[in-house]
């Protein structure tokens, strides 16, 4: 590329030419590092320019929405600055732990320093840091505030400071943390070290505040658009009677996917969990009154996909690094557009479609007004009224929600309407007519909101089981081992060799070394007919309940509704029962002509791989139908005498 372009630039003087060459060189180097460590092929918008600013030693202020890929912006320079350490200031222990674990999986040395460490561990990290052993060192703001920290940090070969969640430094932001104010001292103590601030949430005022407080010097500013086109905003006014049904409808629509439900109070968290349990929807809670261990445990159960629905107060979420969240549902009016944007923005960080549903009630406004009136500081009260007026206007139905958000953050979008909010496209059918069955019906192809419709569900479950076991064995959250997006791509690509696996997004050099062979083996076993093993006790009870409902004449959809499951989950269980000879296949389950087509394909191609059958059959034939028919044939085959006996 450079060689091709350079002859065409004869008029560029020597210096500019040198800069140009350097930039191009840097670009190839950056891409090579991106591929090597992360296993990604390209940068997301602005990432490359931000990395270049940081490598060029510039103070930098980055405003990028959640999911934009901020962490890579400071981690990649860290990987490329041998002998230097990037010191990351981050407010949450869980986030630091996850990031250090993810870095380890990429072969990048990182460490953290916060209150969770013992004295000996701290001493060892400090020693390592002074020796320049870490590319990244995560430090909590409280830790930084301690007097001795600055003196030993001065002996660390610091490449730059990266301040994560930088809006916490501003009283104008909705997540002000007094300990962040300590960061103002950094400039004085480290006058030659570049400082880079990162935030997902900043109005112009907060942005200026960040730059002032951190004393950034002529910083490079990168402000990504706040438009998140993969999010569908749906705002619905309801009352105490209708809200619970709407919540259940939304959760059924997203059955099998990760969802966050935001509740206004701790009491409502508990009530909601109990109510959902009655409806057969498993959910766990998260709020400030729980002890740290239970909070961490619940968070991990949700992160590892053990329980899909998490009901929390606003205490949940800052720094939560789960990319494949398919819906965020609010049960009350947030205090500000910023807060709403931040919380709702935890949906769809993987870039796939996701729903942000705001179910608010008139009485929420009275509560917000009450709190504002109680404020004693007039300046704070004035800010609160301003935020209140903005969020009240946001929930009015006339205007495009995406447009409103972008304008709130100081953008001037050229478009006036989107196709991804209720104001522009109307309420989605599943919400407008909650009495109807959930989205999954037999006879229709299984279409999932997360675009995983073309993924063999058996293989997905099988790989997830491997991921769960592997993550548990190493004490890691499941997504650290592998993101859902990579898992789905594995199902589609079905690599048979390490070089093929390396081309799957998310498999960098180190991750491939760590898990490559295991994953190839798992895929091979799957091809050989291996399937997920469920915990026997739980599955027996569920299977009995399903068989009882079938015997009473209920359809799969009805059973799914009664048991609060996805129809495909019920069908998968039924197929399993058929295969194990516990249940007779019933001809009414699959239309006769379709059944014949599937049986013919099974005879031609074998019954081992549903994916192979699906690819060979017309697209309108669903995985569910194939699974049922194949289960019957698998049963027949297992009963047939072995060839040598014939
Ligand atoms: P933020 O901190 O801005 O919310 P993250 O840094 O957590 O975002 O990134 C969100 C998700 O996007 C993560 O799963 C991350 O691995 C992924 N990601 C970031 N950059 C890229 C890229 N260039 N290509 C593919 N995925 C990326």
Can you tell me about this structure?
The chain has 4 domains: 212 residues, Rossmann fold; 202 residues, P-loop containing nucleotide triphosphate hydrolases (Rossmann fold, 3-Layer(aba) Sandwich); 71 residues, HRDC domain (DNA polymerase, domain 1); 77 residues, no CATH class. 50% of the residues lie in helices and 10% in strands. The strands form 2 sheets. Strands 3-4-2-5-6-1-7 form a 7-stranded parallel sheet, with helices on both faces. A 6-stranded parallel sheet has the order 8-13-12-9-11-10, with helices on both faces. β12, α14 and β13 form a beta-alpha-beta unit. α15 packs antiparallel against α16 and α26 crosses α27. The chain is globular. The relative contact order is 0.08. The N terminus and C terminus are likely disordered. It binds adenosine-5'-diphosphate. The site of adenosine-5'-diphosphate has 17 residues, from α4.
